[in-house]
Amino acid sequence: MLNRNKDLMKDLMKNNRTSILLSIIITLFFILATENTVAEKEVLEIDFLISTENTVALDNLRVFYDEPDAEEIENEDYSLLIYNQQRAVLQNQTLPVYFYLFDSPQLPNEVPLTIKIPYHQNYKYLELQKNKTTFFFKDIGILCQKNKRCEASENYASCPQDCPSGGSDGFCDTLADGRCDPDCLANDLDCLSKEEGTSLWWVIIFLILIMIILYYLKKTNNFSRLMELFNTKKKK
Ligand SMILES: [Ca+2]
Ligand SMILES: [Ca+2]
After folding, report:
1. In-domain check, residue 186
2. Same structural domain for residues 30 and 67?
3. Is residue 130 domain-shared with residue 74, that is, in the same domain?
4. In which domain, by residue range, is 113 found?
């Protein structure tokens, strides 16, 4: 009875090892397969410099793939509103504007602010308000002017109708479209040389083959026998 239990435990451990090995290989395969196909959201990043006099310098306005800032009430005095062409409000959120500096008793005249909000192509006007009074208003329709020309203010994330993937638009889209995006430093698989691309596919095929063989061995219970044979040879 005791020996039977020991044998059962051994079998269980062997099966566990096989399962762990299989899980690692399957995970590796899915990481490789999904690396370039993760769906990301378009995000509008805005960099402001806001002064105590309520003057605003808009330093940067760009669209890329990322997570928007978590919505939380910061300072209810300041808000940002985005409208469409028909002046309907599409976004309305409070802004974390505070005129102080860490570790400094002096109060600054202006503070920088960077925010990331979800982006939609119908964004047309941006407005800043303090206590419900407008102190900044800007046309941001330049992010996507559908005119079949990819302009400096547009990219594949903000205006794919004008800026096709893989083009030179200051944005690395990493899309598998057969075009090496000149804006990508590394992570566009289309930029790999033919030899590098072929090697990567061989690695993937090799992993799939190992998976199939291990699955077959496990199913026919030959994996345990194979491991036993391997261990016996090792002991010798
Ligand atoms: Ca355009
Ligand atoms: Ca590009």
Report:
1. no
2. no
3. yes
4. 42-143
Question: Nearest ligand to the C-alpha of residue 164?
Answer: 2
pTM: 0.65
How close is the Cα of 156 to the center of ligand 2, in Å?
7
| Proximal ligand: closest to the CA of 157 | 2
Domain count, the chain: 2
Residue 166 CA to ligand 2 centre (angstroms): 5
Ligand nearest to the CA of 170: 2
Residue of 38, 36, 39, 46 whose CA lies nearest to 119: 46
Q: Hey, what long-range contacts does 101-107 have (CB within 8 A, 24 or more apart)?
A: none
Answer for the pair 151, 168: CB distance below 8 angstroms, yes or no: no
CA of 194 to the centre of ligand 2 (A): 20
My answer on whether 26 and 48 are in the same domain is: no
For residue 188, which ligand has an atom nearest its CA?
Answer: 2
pLDDT in tens, 109-150: 999 999 999 999 999 999 999 999 999 999 999 999 999 999
57 and 6 together in one domain: no
The ligand minimizing its distance to the Cα of 168 is 2
Model confidence pLDDT, tens digit, residues 19-68: 666 666 666 666 655 555 445 699 999 999 999 999 999 989 999 999 99
User: Across-strand partners of 204?
Assistant: none
Same domain, 25 and 49: no
> Do residues 22 and 51 both lie within one domain?
no
Going from the Cα of 160 to the center of ligand 1, the distance in angstroms, rounded, reads 9
